[in-house]
Design a protein that fits this description.
The structure is a single chain. The protein has one domain (8-52). The protein is 35% helix and 29% strand. It is built from 1 helix and 2 strands, in the order E-E-H. Strands 1-2 form a two-stranded antiparallel ribbon.
Amino acid sequence: MLTENKKVSYTKSSLFMDTVVSLKVITTKSSNEVNNCMNMAFQAFRTVEDVCSRFKKVKLCNY
């Protein structure tokens, strides 16, 4: 018996540089794989946001 690989849609949004960034993935991959890839994509946005920020991050305490 053949099993059909069903495509599933995953959506995740986050705020970067005052802009909502939304990702939508339609795949047969596992939710764990997709979430890892989406998190890597959002990390790329965080990196750009950190590099382009005109404000210096200040550590207020040692905790």
